[in-house]
Design brief:
The chain is of the alpha/beta class. The chain has 15 helices and 13 strands.
Length: about 375
């Protein structure tokens, strides 16, 4: 696994430092809505499980404990509409970002291979392709590119989307899966469809709030065949476990077995106490419902504030963010960032998420209730 680090762009968040200082100078202080890092307590049931497993002198298993993998399988059946997963086709990861960044390399991609990802997207999809020496291709129409190109080896889906909160329905997911399988049949080379679903438990709009956000592993999508499919999930958002680096990938047993073999050699292992904490988190739906309600309240307060101040909230059907632009003529995202910094509010420019996103800013819901209320008050002049 050779990593071509020279191909990496500058880290985008470094460019936000001067704006942060401007926002911090506001008399009421900084309200940081730029990064989706959880601020609420880690659930007690999780902390208790971590503490109970703290005496952990031996090496943990790379594949994850049987209890953890069974908990993932049960969670998929109970919460995602995906029954009957093979526990062997589940693999814990050190957060989801490392898997996103390294998956093209772990799959053996390189020069001449294309990695499709959403046109408005978390930048690590692009970074992962570059690390492997592959070509990142942003697109809102992966089905068309799969039919017209013979070099596609990996397709990233992200539903619910970061940063824009868009959601892919069953038919949209199935169309990509079918196109990827047709491309593999045409070229004789495998095409993997990997779906980043880390915000799936945070759906706000219908029909997703009632029926759930569909997974790429849903039988209605797969036709009962998981070949070439991976679902990536993190407990950072639904369970406030960002500091635990607790995530997993599941799907095609053959693909997971290959990832497992490489990760065993490389020592890419989730610590044993964290595996115990993950197991407890996946078995307890009550804390997820409680956290979802917190974010629902904050989202409502922030949305009202932005709309009252003359902004438009686009998409944002699910997830931890509002996807915001000024009403009226298009405005560059950095100008909107500066306007909000004058109120002491720090948000992320859409430019971080691709050229297609240059007119929006991303607003995180991850601030304490008091700071969310303060942000809304500043927006409305209350």
């Amino acid at each position: 696994m050779g990593l071509l680090t020279a191909a990496l762009p500058d880290f985008p968040w470094d460019s936000l430092v001067p704006v942060r200082e401007r926002a911090r100078a506001h008399p009421g202080g900084l309200v940081d809505l730029s990064v989706g890092t959880p601020v609420d307590p880690t659930p007690e049931v999780v902390r208790e499980a971590l503490a109970a497993a703290a005496d952990s002198p031996g090496y943990p298993t790379t594949h994850g404990t049987p209890a953890l993998r069974e908990a993932v399988v049960a969670w998929f059946a109970r919460c995602r509409g995906v029954p009957g997963l093979d526990p062997d086709a589940v693999l814990p990861t050190v957060g989801s970002k490392e898997l996103v960044a390294f998956l093209p390399s772990l799959l053996g991609l390189g020069a001449g291979d294309a990695v499709l990802h959403p046109a408005t997207a978390y930048p690590t999809y692009d970074v992962g392709a570059r690390l492997a020496g592959a070509v990142p291709v942003p697109t809102d129409d992966p089905v068309r590119l799969l039919a017209s190109r013979d070099d596609v080896r990996l397709v990233w889906l992200n539903s619910p989307g970061n940063p824009d909160g868009s959601v892919l329905g069953v038919q949209e997911l199935a169309a990509v899966v079918d196109a990827a399988r047709a491309a593999a049949g045409r070229t004789g080379r495998p095409v993997v469809v990997a779906s980043d679903e880390c915000y799936a438990e945070l759906a706000w709009d219908e029909p997703w709030a009632s029926s759930g956000v569909p997974s790429v592993l849903d039988p209605r999508v797969t036709g009962g065949d998981l070949t070439g499919l991976l679902s990536v999930y993190s407990l950072s958002k639904q369970s406030n476990l960002a500091g635990y680096r607790a995530a997993f990938v599941a799907g095609d047993p053959a693909l997971v077995a290959g990832l497992l073999e490489t990760r065993k050699h490389a020592g890419m292992i989730v610590p044993g106490p964290v595996q115990a904490a993950m197991t407890a988190a996946l078995q307890d739906d009550a804390h997820v419902a409680e956290q979802r309600e917190r974010y629902r309240r904050r989202r409502s307060v922030l949305r009202r504030g932005f709309e009252a101040a003359g902004y438009v909230v686009d998409r944002s059907h699910a997830g931890l963010y509002l996807w915001v632009r000024p009403d009226g003529p298009p405005q560059d995202a950095w100008s909107t960032v500066a306007d909000l910094a004058s109120l002491g509010l720090l948000v992320a420019p859409g430019a971080f998420y691709g050229s297609a996103a240059a007119g929006h800013v991303r607003v995180a819901l991850t601030a304490p209730d008091e700071r969310i209320a303060e942000a809304a008050a500043r927006l409305t002049g209350a």
